[in-house]
Amino acid sequence: MRFFSIFAACYLIRIYNIMTKEELKIVFMGTPDFAVASLRALVEGGYHVAGVVTMPDKPMGRHGSTLQMSAVKQYAVSVGLPTLQPEKLKDESFICKLQAMQADLQIVAAFRMLPEVVWDMPRFGTFNLHASLLPQYRGAAPVNWAIINGEKETGVTTFFLTHEIDTGRIIRQKRLPVAETDDAGTVHDALMTLGAKLVVETTDLLIENDGNIASIPQGTLYKDVRELHPAPKIFTDTCRINWNRTTNSIYDFIRGLSPYPAAWTELISPDGKRISAKIFQSEKRIENHRVIPGSIHTDGKQILDVAANDGVVRILSIQLSGKKRMSVNDFLNGTKINNAWRVE
């Protein structure tokens, strides 16, 4: 009976020209750890990854004499996958090499914006894995902004690439609850795993339907663009804590930027000395008070509280410029802070 089932499946594949996962040629595009999980899932799942496209190696070290491979390249090299690292995605040499891979499908995860000559190349098209429930949080930092905005749920989306960034037709989504104690690091890792599963499911769907699958225009999911939350790239100035905001928003801001790039503030001594510090972990307490936001309350040993406009943020993990991350206990033991200090 089992032999008959296998024979029947093979017969149907020949009759209907259904491509198998071993036959479908995939080119994978990505750079950081987030993308590695999806690439690994494809490789270990027996899919035919014909090649990988990633960022050029970056100079590292004091004099830039050492070249650092991207996380995706490190994995690709470890499993013997051909790798392309173009400086410019419209470069004629790169386009020729990409065409030579004869991809049926391209999959993108955490990579650069592709020109049409690239994303329109395969017959099954190119789909992207995005770390949000599109159309919400289009942009470079969807994980951070979802937490900063206090979302209780986020997720991952696969969608077909088109001209405008993160606006293509949605193929599939998976949802992820966000706990109040989660930070960008824990949500990133959960979405990385969830995203790898979604990439495999989306690829299987395309194979089963010979590339002809239903997809949803993002414009049908909202009435007004003002309903959408953007997720723009985060810069150093973006990460500065505004202590005049609500306790909840400051708490969400800190966890939304932890562990990277990290929220920061300046500790200011009574004589005006300023010390820059990153804040990685905190607790919150809503309470009425008449204290100026940014005022510090500390016992000099274990407690470092900062006033917000409707409560208190207790700092638990901190890093001074040029130093290692440490608990607030270790920080207070090594730095003489008192209630005359403030933050700004």
Q: Can you walk through the features of this model?
A:
By secondary structure, the chain is α+β, with helices and mostly antiparallel strands. The protein has helices at residues 2-16, 33-44, 71-78, 92-100, 116-119, 142-148, 184-208, 247-256, 328-334, and strands spanning 25-30, 48-53, 58-60, 66-68, 83-84, 105-109, 126-130, 153-160, 170-177, 263-268, 274-286, 296-298, 304-307, 311-320, 326-327, 342-343. The strands form three sheets. It has a seven-stranded mixed β-sheet.
CA gyration radius, whole angstroms: 24 Å
Q: What percentage of residues falls in helices of 4 or more residues?
A: 25-40%
Count all strands and give the number.
16
Low-pLDDT ranges: 6-15
Largest sheet descriptor: 7 strands, mixed
Shape: elongated
Overall pLDDT: 94
* Structural classification: alpha+beta
Distance between the termini: 74 Å
**N-to-C order of helices and strands:** HEHEEEHEHEHEHEEHHEEEEEEHE
Q: What is the helix tally? A: 9
Record the strand order, biggest sheet: 5-2-1-6-7-8-9
**Share in β-strands:** 25-35%
